Amino acid sequence: LFVGLAALLICSSGLCIREAEDDEGNITYAATSVTLFSEMLKLSLALVITLTSDAPRQKIDARTAAYFLPGAVGYLAVNNVRYFMLEQVNPGLMAIVWNLKICVIGLLYALPPFRRAFTRFQWAGAGLLVVGSTLAEVSQWGATDEFGQSNTGGTLGLEVVAGALVLTSASAVATEYAYKVTDLPLSRQNVILYTYGCLLNLLTALVWRSLEGQSSVPFTRGFTAWTWAVVAAQAASGYAIGALLKYVDAIGQVFADVIAMLITVVFRVVAFGIYI
Fold first, then answer.
1. Cα–Cα distance measured from residue 17 to residue 14, given in angstroms and rounded to the nearest whole number
2. Complete DSSP assignment for 145-177
3. Dihedrals φ, ψ of 220, to 5°?
4. pTM of the entire structure?
C-alpha cells in the first residue's frame, strides 16, 4: 500500500512537469527554482512534524549530519537534470529506462557497507527488466511525441538519462544507508537531508541565475498554477521516497517506479491518446 502511494506521487510529479510546459513542449520557468522551492517545502514539512512530535529530541552531531551529505549532493544533480530529461525523452519511456537502476543498485549493494548480494533469481528478474527496457528503447528510436520531439531524445538525451541513472542509484543507496545507520526519527533525519538540499539548491540557483545574467529576475518567473503543482508533487514524492528508503530499501523505490511507469502509460493513453 505504501509503495503504491509513493508510485502515485512519483507519477503525478512527472505528469505535472509535462502539464507545466508551454504549447511547444518547452519549460518556461527556472528548473532550479522549482527544485529549491520543493526542497524548502519538504524541509518545512519535516520541521512541523519534528516540532509537533512527542518523540525525544536527540542531539544531532557532525558525524550524523555528514552521513546525509553524499545523498544530498547526488539528488541535487538528479533533481535538476530531470527537467532536461523530461523535455527530451517521453516520460513513459524514461520511466521504463529508469527502471534499469535496479541493476546498478544490485551492484552497489554488493559493495561495503551493505555486502548484500542479489540471488540468481533476483538477477534473472533484473535481466528481464533490462531486456524489456532495451526493446522499448529500440521501438521508440526515431519516433516523435505530440510536440514533434524525439521520444528518446537522441544520443544526448540517452547519455544524460544513463548518467542520471547511475547517479540516482548511488544517491538512493547512500541515503538508505544514512537513514538506517543513524538512530533518529524520520522527520529529524529529513531535517538534516533537506537542510542540505535547501542550501545546495539555493547556491546552485544563485550561480545559475548569475551565469544567465538573470540575478535580478524573480525566482518565480514563468510560474503558473501547474508549476506550483510540480513543486508540491515533487515535495510529496520526495518525502515518500525517503520513507521507503528508511523503512524498506532502495529496491522498494524501484517497485514504486515500476508502478508509476504503468500509471503514467495508462493515464497518457486514456487522457491524451499518446502511446509509447
1. 5
2. -TTS-BSS-HHHHHHHHHHHHHHHHHHHHHHHH
3. -95, 15
4. 0.84
